[in-house]
Amino acid sequence: MSNLEQGDAITPSRIAVITRAAVAEVRQAPLLMLIVFVPLVIVLEQTSPQAHTLLFAMSVCAIVPLAMLLSRATEAVSARTGDAVGGLLNATLGNLTELVISLAALPAGQYLLVKASLAGAIVTNTLFMLGGAFLFGGLKHHVQEFNRVNARFQACLLFLATVAIMVPSIISDVDQTSVVSQKLSLGLAVLLIAVYAMGMLFSLKTHRELFASASDAEEGHSSWPLTVSIVILVVVTLFVALISEIFVGSVQGAADRLGMTPAFVGFIVVALVGGAAEMTTAFSAARANRLDLSVGIALGSAAQIALFVAPILVIVSYFLGPEPMSLQFWPGAVTMMLIATMAATFLSNGGRGVWYMGVMALAVYAIFGLTLFLLPPAVPS
Amino acid sequence: MSNLEQGDAITPSRIAVITRAAVAEVRQAPLLMLIVFVPLVIVLEQTSPQAHTLLFAMSVCAIVPLAMLLSRATEAVSARTGDAVGGLLNATLGNLTELVISLAALPAGQYLLVKASLAGAIVTNTLFMLGGAFLFGGLKHHVQEFNRVNARFQACLLFLATVAIMVPSIISDVDQTSVVSQKLSLGLAVLLIAVYAMGMLFSLKTHRELFASASDAEEGHSSWPLTVSIVILVVVTLFVALISEIFVGSVQGAADRLGMTPAFVGFIVVALVGGAAEMTTAFSAARANRLDLSVGIALGSAAQIALFVAPILVIVSYFLGPEPMSLQFWPGAVTMMLIATMAATFLSNGGRGVWYMGVMALAVYAIFGLTLFLLPPAVPS
Amino acid sequence: MSNLEQGDAITPSRIAVITRAAVAEVRQAPLLMLIVFVPLVIVLEQTSPQAHTLLFAMSVCAIVPLAMLLSRATEAVSARTGDAVGGLLNATLGNLTELVISLAALPAGQYLLVKASLAGAIVTNTLFMLGGAFLFGGLKHHVQEFNRVNARFQACLLFLATVAIMVPSIISDVDQTSVVSQKLSLGLAVLLIAVYAMGMLFSLKTHRELFASASDAEEGHSSWPLTVSIVILVVVTLFVALISEIFVGSVQGAADRLGMTPAFVGFIVVALVGGAAEMTTAFSAARANRLDLSVGIALGSAAQIALFVAPILVIVSYFLGPEPMSLQFWPGAVTMMLIATMAATFLSNGGRGVWYMGVMALAVYAIFGLTLFLLPPAVPS
Questions:
Q1: How many other CB atoms are there within 10 angstroms of residue C43's CB atom?
Q2: Where would you find the membrane-spanning parts of this chain (chains A, B, C) (predicted)?
Q3: Helix (H) or strand (E) holding C352
């Protein structure tokens, strides 16, 4: 056994090291103590599943420390793999949550809920996460450089997905039979997954040098060993998925009591809490002047939902759902996705980040939020 | 009293200097003699307010020399403050006219007129003023450089305002009660003003170095002292507002006699004459190879109307109007604003100005004008 | 007579040289032997004009070698004139086919067919031809540079044409009488032709240095003399027009037998075969690392159809058609043109070509094709 392999193996002495490290982490970031809410909320959900408002509040508290752990673990991994791979890894783990929740909703045929959650995640990642990263990073650093190749690449993928969702309903004026719509959705789903797979090939293999980070930020604090980081990533992601499901189950009841419309809950609240983990990583990366990682997580996650998660769900609905799910979205959702894509294109065009770009992205998001809060759409989520 | 302060104080001897300077100005630019129409049109409006076509013609003649004076004074001020501040100052003074006219129309509840005039000013400034500046500047200079940071910044603001106006009507398929629409408009108005204020902070304070001019053009002719310039700016602006009001009062009657549709008058004629002062400045700045100033006036003025004047009017309508005014515009107006914003983005992307870019912007404007001239929209202005 | 002129004159000895060269060409590219289908299909069309499926298959076979010849001749000419002029020349010759076919359809008043063929050609050139050039070029060369000034210029022209086609139907909510629509279309047609003519002046005369090629690719194989190339260009273009007409005549019958919708045939099949000649040139130029020529042909051809061919047909319809043709297109066609324009803008923005950009453009085209194949639109072509 070589030295290197030994250094990565999990032995009792390493566990002691990890425990000491964990204590040190908590001292540095007292918010990590909120982790006690994780078992509490799981127990409460078993004992009194009707306490919606309490479950809602406690699951939000429980997600925060998990998100912080995920953030640290991703940083540690991406410190070894580079920002592009780190961003992809983080986006994938973050979207696992979306995928798990949506897969749970498929057999019941709750397609409106699934689509609202997908569209909300795309819009929230593109505008709120990207905008927040620009704002938080820009408040600390005067001007931040980032590699615009990756930003443009992800924005183009988002544009493509929006076209795939938008075109069928615009080209055809006649009412489509659901058979035609389903065939078309299946074809588009296969097309999007193929384009996404080729995109991975392009960005991680044939032209990976174009995606190198603009900034050479060094890590401020000592980072975790690779094995530890990956174990933490996987375990914490599972807990995030678990808590997220409790959160989704309680949010509607809590929202009714707090006077929020279903559209606002589906698009804004679920997406914000569901993406908390990725957001924590994206914001802290921006403050550490690693805007490439932030942009990679925000736009990469949005593109992955649009070109991978949504199409997979369409295909899986043939096996799990009561009837096949189509790729057609409510027109308001398509409009918001298109505007978010255009905003991402404008913002990432220059390859430089300043605080005001964050303000503008957040303002577009606030316009959506305000409208959804005041004007319930015809088709509720 | 220091030397510097003495040099800026207004004394009899300085008034003599100003008078001599004024005579010299008129000799250089004989069109300034049209200023005699200013008292004439004011008198005529008092004596025969029904002579619409005559008032229309005379007020156009009176606005030209005032616009030229305003242009010279702004140039003199911006020579001391830099193009970004100069452009903002000019845009603000130019839009005072819009604001004054609109405030006069609020108590009568003429919201359609107000909105048509606002949308027309945004589209005219973005396409006609910017296009004219590119064309006039490009006919004299082969290729002109300009700072695209400012152009992009203003284009992003315009995009944001267009989203704020467009989203509410698209997201909601159901007919909105006017109560919901008013609440939403008030919220959006406050949001836009806040974003605009932060934009000022960004462009004039925290990141002002990004907005420095691309070209270091020196002034060809001796410029006026700062105090004189500011006094002229204020006095002439007041006269422009006065004459503009007479113009607006007469234009509808004159248009009927000349066979123009209300939409064409509201969008094109009023906006062109109302913006004459800023246009004169923008065009002459472009010919003096100060395209930064031109772009600053054109796009800055459009953004200011969209993010400051329109929201202010929504808020003021709560106090002055018969009922609150909403931010919802006629769909055709929103479409034209969106196209104008996209055109401004395309044109300002490269940071270089050539005559053909002016032709393209003017062609888009001509398409709008031709359509409005031939096809009266369902909702007249 | 100078030496140079003698070198370009057509004498018996030169014809022998040309024949030998032709034999050499066929040896290099055996596909050129398909040229025997040219006389065959012309004969078959005279003898059995009802054999639609056979005529369809044979005319496709006949167009391939003609396209290859056209490609070689254009390369030879553009080697002497530069890529910008070469691209324009190729686009014009390619669009002569469109123009000839459309002129033949005008007297019968088949305006839907004409418009579908124009819109299909614009979308196919912008997405399929540009995307294919990026893909084929990118598979051979890692990263290709191209002059983005020309690409942006053509994309702006396309945007302008799309606005001209889109605005009239959006601004006016009321049903337009056909008289108003015809007057407006005539005005817009004159405007577009004027803008296109000024664009030629700009790109070929006043600012031609901005349009110089980014790459200095040398010709791999010996190129033909200028006179020979031009004669071949003209003769082959005539044959392409002839075969194209047979193809268009047979395609509908063949499509019915093969189960394709009229919209799919009009937009996709006719446009792909009609543009085969230009595509061959564009793709082989991309493989020869002359992406400027490819972009010039693809976008230049699309812009020429939108700003020159379509307006000319509107004007000519006053003399040849049963009633004037309008510039109004079916909304789905306008949407596809707008998306194609935006895609072209995104793709050409960076001035660099890689294989994945081709994949994305082709994916957008595939979305259109799939939708048209499965969802027949309300208004058939």
A1: 10
A2: 29-48, 54-73, 85-106, 118-139, 151-172, 184-204, 224-243, 263-283, 295-321, 327-347, 354-375
A3: strand C352-353
Is pLDDT of B220 > 60? no
Cβ-Cβ contacts under 8 Å for B182 (sequence gap 6 or more): B324, B326
Among the partner residues B157, B173, B207, nearest to A378 by beta-carbon distance: B173
Domain total in chain B = 1
Distance CA(C90)–CA(C301), nearest Å, equals 8
CA–CA separation, A64 vs A71, rounded Å? 11
Phi-psi region of C225 (alpha: psi -120 to 50; beta: other; left: phi over 0): beta
Predicted complex: ipTM over 0.85: no
The single residue listed with the structure tokens 């200097």 is B17
∠ Cα A261 A262 A264 (to 5°):
65
Which letter does DSSP use for residue C218 in this model? P
Interface residue ranges in chain C relative to chain B, Cβ cutoff 8 Å: 149, 152-153, 155-157, 159-160, 163-164, 167-168, 170-174, 176, 180, 183-184, 187-188, 191, 195, 198-199, 202, 206-207, 210, 345, 349
Residue B240 structural domain = 83-222+233-374
Chains that touch A (3 or more CB pairs under 8 A): B, C
* A363 inside domain: yes
What CATH number did the domain enclosing C123 receive? Answer: 1.20.1420.30
A123–chain C nearest CA distance, Å: 20
Distance from CA of C252 to the nearest CA of A (A): 21
How does strand B144-145 pair with strand B352-353? antiparallel
Give pLDDT tens digits for B78-125.
777 766 677 677 677 777 767 777 777 788 777 877 888 899 999 999
- B47 inside domain: no
Q: Does this model's pTM top 0.95?
A: no
pLDDT digits (tens, 9 = 90+) for B26-43: 776 777 788 889 999 999
Decide if C33 is inside a domain: no
Structure confidence by residue, pLDDT tens digits, C156-185: 999 999 999 888 777 665 556 677 888 899
Q: How far is CA B43 from CA A196, B236, C239, in A?
A: 72, 18, 75
Q: Is residue B17 part of a domain?
A: no
Integer Rg of chain A from CA: 21
The verdict on a CB contact (< 8 Å) between C332 and A170 is yes
